[in-house]
TrEMBL record:
The name this protein goes by in its record: O-succinylhomoserine sulfhydrylase
Tagged with keyword Cytoplasm: no
EC number(s) recorded for this UniProt protein: 2.5.1.-
Organism the protein comes from: Pedobacter miscanthi
Names of the cofactor(s): pyridoxal 5'-phosphate
Pathway assignment: Amino-acid biosynthesis; L-methionine biosynthesis via de novo pathway; L-homocysteine from O-succinyl-L-homoserine: step 1/1
GO molecular function: carbon-sulfur lyase activity; pyridoxal phosphate binding; transferase activity, transferring alkyl or aryl (other than methyl) groups
Family: Belongs to the trans-sulfuration enzymes family. MetZ subfamily.
Gene3D superfamilies: Aspartate Aminotransferase, domain 1, Type I PLP-dependent aspartate aminotransferase-like (Major domain)
Pfam families given in the database record: Cys_Met_Meta_PP
Modified residues (N6-(pyridoxal phosphate)lysine): K206
Quaternary assembly: Homotetramer.
Length: 388
């Protein structure tokens, strides 16, 4: 039975059952595979025949995870990596070479910033940052040697949004590769490829797993582009483990229902905090006060599970608020079933200068709230007592 419904695809896409007729896909903890004869071995290594050669290349568990994500995201092919940052590094490594230039959104994850400034810059790749809230400035940054546009939307942790259709048209006009980090939205809320993106990247560690258990990442795109990714990844070795792939594939079965609750809780938290006298600013895509609210409504199904706030009183007030939280976890992670509070300026984005943080709206009083699946009354009660 074929279905176009997200939930059914996420649950019913599986590897072919073995002779044991298992209902749930087993874990294939094997590093290598047996060939029927020397000719099959030759044909597989020559890419004349499809099949598993070595688990650094492919594995039934990673293949199932990739197949599901391709169907959910609207991609032709994909490659699963050990972490989200491995997915970003592999994408940059596969398509950027000495002398190339890329345009990136200024508001990116701290480790992505480190890759651009301290790794690829040493390899002769240059870049310019552009602001998500100033789309009129992007085209002027494109140079003859520009190869790629890279963007997070919603961004981490500023929750800024950019019009993906606009970027898709811009990339098409200048024959550039548009790469979107879709981690915060997940394929349930947003499919960048539908708006013109060539590659969509996820840190599967976050909402795909959603329970703080395993690390993982994935790169999705056309067969032609993913062939280049595979060519780079097979030899650099960032592959996802079979066990983690099995966990992530099973996690996709509950992604839709989890995201519905994350979004429902997050919107209620954002609406509550927007009226609180001790909160200077609230950023959430589906709040009408968000600067890119209309764009978010156009390209996202719901607003996601992350609310970013700025507490009145700067870093001292932010620390006091976090230390008084009783149920929320203080952690650098996000997208867990458990609600989490993070102070980006001293953790995830601490390697940026204060000027760089200010440019993307990370103040000393900024706190990223990853709203979990607890009862909304308990979430709000914890926030209320911590702000009292």
């Amino acid at each position: 039975m074929k279905s176009e419904n997200f939930e059914t695809i996420a649950i019913r896409t599986q590897t072919e059952r073995s002779l044991h007729k298992e209902h749930s896909s087993p874990i294939y903890l094997t590093s290598s595979y047996k060939f029927e004869d020397a000719e099959e071995m030759r044909a597989l290594f020559a890419n004349e025949k499809e099949g598993n050669v070595y688990s650094r290349y492919s594995n039934p568990n990673t293949s199932e995870f990739i197949d599901k994500m391709c169907l959910l995201e609207g991609a032709e092919d994909g490659f699963a990596t050990a972490t989200g940052m491995a997915a970003i590094f592999t994408t940059f490594g596969a398509f950027l070479k000495n002398g190339d230039h890329l345009v990136s959104s200024r508001s990116v994850f701290g480790s992505t910033h480190q890759l651009l400034t301290n790794v690829f810059s040493n390899w002769g790749v240059t870049f310019d940052y552009a602001d998500l809230d100033k789309p009129q400035d992007w085209e002027a940054l494109i140079k003859p040697n520009t190869k790629m546009i890279f963007v997070e939307t919603p961004s981490n942790p500023g929750i800024d949004i950019i019009d993906l259709e606009f970027l898709g048209n811009l990339a098409k006009k200048h024959n550039l590769l548009l790469v979107v980090d879709n981690c915060f939205a997940t394929p349930y809320l947003q499919q960048p490829i539908k708006f013109g993106a060539h590659i969509s990247i996820h840190s599967a560690t976050k909402y795909i797993d959603g329970q703080g258990r395993v690390l993982g990442g994935i790169i999705l795109g056309t067969k032609e582009l993913i062939a280049d990714v595979i060519g780079f990844a097979r030899h650099s070795g960032p592959s996802l483990s079979p066990f983690n792939a099995w966990v992530l594939s099973k996690s996709l079965e509950t992604l839709a229902i989890r995201m519905d609750r994350h979004c429902e809780n997050a919107l209620k938290v954002a609406e509550y905090l927007e009226k609180h006298p001790k909160i200077k600013l609230v950023k959430y895509p589906f709040l009408p006060s968000h600067p890119q609210y209309e764009i978010a409504k156009k390209q996202m199904k719901q607003g996601g599970g992350i609310v970013t706030i700025v507490v009145e009183g700067g870093i001292d007030a932010a620390r006091k608020f976090m230390d008084r939280l009783q149920m929320f976890s203080i952690s650098a992670n996000l997208a867990d079933t458990r609600s989490i509070a993070t102070h980006p300026a001293t953790s995830t984005h601490s390697k940026l200068t204060e000027e760089q943080r200010n440019e993307v709206g990370i103040e000393q009083g900024s706190i990223r709230l990853s709203i979990g699946l607890e009862h909304i009354n308990d979430i709000l009660a914890d926030i209320e007592q911590a702000l009292a």
